[in-house]
Each structure stands twice: as structure tokens, then as C-alpha cells.
Amino acid sequence: MNSLQITYSLADQQFQRTKSIGILNLSVQLAARLAKRPEFDRFTLLTNQTLEGQLPIPATTRVQRCDLAIGGRFRRLVWDQWSVYRAARQSGNPWLFLPKGFASFVRLCPVNLALYAHDAIHEYYQRHNPRGLPFLERLYFQKCVRAGLRYANVIFTNSDFTRRELERLARACRLPAPPLRTAGIGFSAPTAPVRTKQDRIVVLAGRWPHKRTDLAVEYLARWQRTSQFPGNMDWVGGLSGDLVLPDFSGWRRHSRLPESEYRQLMAQARALIYFSDYEGFGMPPVEAVLAGVCPVYSAIPATEEVMDGAGCSFSNQSYDTFSKALTQALAVAPSQIEAWAMELLRRHNWDAVAERVVSGLQEFDAGPNPILRA
Fold it and tell me: The domain spanning residue 157 has which CATH number?
């Protein structure tokens, strides 16, 4: 068994500013699982002041605080493009693991580089909605993704769909892609019993155009008028500047909720609504099932791969399929949701994810970075 020494960076992540709570949670959970693996002789965790005392890591973990990455936009750029590689070299470990999946395009990594890629969303915007994101932001992250394809020793992905997306992108850029391995995402069984459900629906919103919050407002307003749903509808997440919710009784908006409050809200709900045009995985529908909630979600490739028939899917192009899916979700028996939960936990568990990552690192642990040897 090859022993491993690795530097894992969480230094650029914090709850208050993250654009993706899911990526933050995944990065923390994966760090915790890998830090406990016996294959690691040395596990160095780069963190920041906002995460201190919140990470479920063993006492043997080396923790190095790096607050530069959360000191503002310019300092974050310096961290991403230069300082994280310097910290990796100073740690003395032969591997650097970046769980957000973005490599520097300014300098070469002085150690072996492993990335965890979540999607190819910025390239998706380039093809389908160039004006949906600020030009400089889209260009920056495109360059980071392409640098990863060019220089990483191995890239792990959250789904087979994301792996195929990166393979396609590498071909389009005429790049020899590094080894790509689907690691997946793990979930834990709920520790608290499912509460008695209320007439409550949770809707996940988002400012990014691909989240299709505009379509969610349109479809749910139409459904509300037709169904006369008497319960509460909680909208969680941001809205674009010109989008407002209709003034229905029971509709409430939460711009952002701490994890504990979100879990409490989910425990009371009967359905979760999740609109999207593009995802690399789609965690909320899985989390909903594990909370005893039936998810109603857009039928897009990644989410259909992940859910594999669990929950109720619909076409973004058809209100009728959405209305049918939501009506079915509100009538699903608890026993069916429990059966879905057991199957999803079997397919998406942290032990299997950690095993795939460790195996991938051991397979490609070949000493100094071959990019630098060339």
C-alpha cells in the first residue's frame, strides 16, 4: 500500500461569501473523510479564521491558517494564482488537492496536482448564454479550468456527466486531458427522525440564470392559482435584481439560511422544488429524500444520473409535466421515500468516495510533477 502525503486547501472557502453552499459542504466533508484514511502519512489542511473549530478532522491533521484568500477579491486572485502553490511547496507534501477544481494559469504547480471538478458551468455559459455572466468572470474561470486540464496529474469529478463534459472540453481545446476519475459525492444518513410533515413546500432559488428561478416563479405562481395550495411556500436563495415573488399568502423568502435552519425547514416540508438548466451533480434532490421530502426537479442529464428514478422529475419546457410532478410529489407515501433514501445512500456514500480518491492518488503518485520534468 503506497503511503500518501497531501496538502488540502479550504483556505478560499467561507460560508458568508460562497456562491455555492453545496461545494463548501462537500469540500469540508471530503477533507474530513480523507484526513481519517490510514493511507495518509501526513495530511496538511489549509484553512482560514472563519472555519476554525468547525472542521470535523482528527487531531493528527496538520492545520495551517491562510487568511489571504478571504481578504477581498484581489487577495483571492493572488491566492488562487500564486500563493496556494507556494503554501503547497512549503508544506513539504508531494500532493496538492484543490476541492473547488480551479488551477492557476499563471504558474506551474511545484508538486503533484489533484483537482475535484464540479462542472463546466462557465463553458456552458460561453455556448448557451454568453451574457448570463460577467465577461471577465467567465474568462477567468475558463482559463482556470483549461489550466487544470493541461497541468493536473489527476482530476476527480462528482459525476459521470461532469467527467464527459471535461473530456469534451479537452477535445474542443485540443488538450491532452489528464486522467479523469469519477469520485462521486457522499451523503450521510440523517441522525434525527423525520418529523411530521406540514403543508410546506421549499423552493431553491438562485441569482445565476441557469438556476431558472424565473421559470420557477412563473410555474409556481400558475400552480398556486390553479391548486389553491393552502400551506407555506418557502423560497430559499437569491433572486436576480428584476425578479420579485408574487404576493401570495404563505409565500416567504429567505435570502440565505444557516445549515441548521435549512435542515429544520426541510424536516417540515413535503416537497422540494429544484429548477435548473445545468448541473454537474445536483445535491439538493438527494438531500431532500434523506430528509423525508419528495424532490421535484428539472430532468437534466446530471440530476437524472444521480437520482436514477428517485423523486419526481419534469421538463423545463413543459408546465404540464411540472404540475404533474408536483402533484405526484405531494401524494408520495413515506415508505416510498424511505426506499429511495436507502438506495441513494447505497449509491452515494462517503466511504466509497474516499476510497476512489485514495486509489486515484495512489495510481498516479509518481514522484515529481511530470509537467515540471518535461
Answer: 3.40.50.2000
